[in-house]
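EI: anyone free to look at a 394-residue chain?
SC: sure, send it
EI:
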Amino acid sequence: MFRRVQFNDLVARLAEPRRMIQVVSGPRQVGKSTMVRQVLQETAIPNMSVSADGVDKENTAWIGEVWATARARMLVGQHAEFLLVIDEVHKIANWSEEVKRQWDADTFNDINLKVIILGSSRLLLKDGLTESLAGRYELIRMPHWSYREMHDAFGVDVEHYIFFGGYPGGAPLTANETRWRRYIKDSIITPAIERDVLMTKTVYKPELMKRLFELGCSYSGEEISLTKLLGQLQDAGNVTTLANYLTTLDESQLLCGLQKYANDNARKYNSVPKLYVYNTSLLSALSGVSFEKVYTFPKEWGRWVESAVGAHLLNNAEESDYRVYYWREGNKEVDFVIERNRQCVAIEVKSGRRTTNAGLPELVKRFNPKHSFVVGTGGVPVEEFLQWNFGELF
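SC: here you go
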């Protein structure tokens, strides 16, 4: 069975003395539970695994009960250490306070009980971790699947990865595009919005959030003002509400509104956003067009290629510690600018959609980036770029 790189990280951390709770975080359907099951099959540490799915959200005592069970099994079995895995823990109200209480009690009493926490809602995990568990946890981030992973696990070529994206559950279904599209909508999009997002944040206009996501995915690779977007949504909301919803979708690793690169933060955050999906599956499933139709029209294919490059940059941003922007001045533009420690790298995607590249020399003159290059025609091959480690650029 294919193992993601996070498998080795978790195995190594469990082999260390008990120090911190291990939190496996990432968007829905990227293989978090599968990876942990693989680790449990390999580890020699006695363990038990439970899920909060189906537990009443007000039943905070449930966490203490499973924790007490793990302690009892450790004691009766006379184990030097024990491992407790709790999946979907964020579905329990005040989960982080109870986890903190139990973890601190074990620390005080020198009980060598190690803990792994998983959750499909990155937002709920983030809120609980920052509020109650500061200094007590380490994150293992699991982003959307990369091209290399999809190629190694399923033999996916770069063209099909660009269109069908990186959801492993959808890989065996791509020969039947209707079935694949239904899977993406029913098993990923609907639960991601209705369970992970709407159950996490106070969303006063859930239908507006859903329509924003659907329309935003269709605009992947395009600049569009929130005022114009609001008009197309035909809702009596306001731009501030829309901006907040877009931030929530970004935090959920679904849809991002890139800001324009500039020397000062005020100009960055007041710019017109450029929308990108975190996984091109979302663009393809909601566009309703076939792979053949997109692939045979260079202008359309160019947008998919740019979206795939953008998704790759976004999914690596947190781990490689950089921020992603775009740049435009008049009719001169650069698709992506990534920045870390006040150093930037300029990236232009060149494909069927655009053949000119006037923006890149202009940006180089203004900002003196550490690197500047083209991805696609006449530059770094897209297939090669989608396998890069961006930390090396800095």
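EI: The longest strand covers residues 332-340.
SC: 👍
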